[in-house]
Amino acid sequence: MEKVALITGAASGIGFALARLLARDNWTVILTDCNKEQVDTAAKSLIDEGGKCFAMLLDVTDYAAINATIDNIIAQHDQLNLVINSAGIAIFGEMKDIPIENWKSIINVNLWGAIYVTDVAYKK
Q1: Cross-strand pairs, 31
Q2: Residues of the chain with pLDDT under 70
Q3: Is residue 22 a contact partner of residue 6, using CB atoms and an 8 Å limit?
Q4: What is the pLDDT of residue 63?
Q5: 35 within 8 A of 41, measured Cβ to Cβ
Q6: Total-model pTM
Q7: Strands of the sheet with 4-8, listed across from one edge
Q8: What is the CA radius of gyration of the chain?
Q9: How many CB atoms lie within 10 A of CB 32?
Q10: How far apart are the first and last CA of the chain?
Q11: What's the pLDDT score for residue 65?
């Protein structure tokens, strides 16, 4: 039976490492990221290693896009067994030097992105 995983922030870092582990364990892995070129490259490298992987562009701050993405996954694979929220951004420097808009971006991606993806996935 096919096992299907969706991983956000899968173009690099922890998300990519988890995608590799799942692909090696015979999962179908949907790698998503806000950088299309990088997520395509990441998925191709796992496919080259023998994994069953697909790349999708996804902005985790866009609730409608998340809904459409998960609908697409379920339409293609009849299920979604696992969601890993790995998308995240960081800003470095002293707090006094970081504009408030940057903090809003961090909260939108790191917190609301995980909430949005989890909310949509559980309701499907």
Answers
A1: 7, 55
A2: none
A3: no
A4: 98
A5: no
A6: 0.95
A7: 52-57, 28-33, 4-8, 82-85
A8: 15
A9: 28
A10: 19
A11: 98
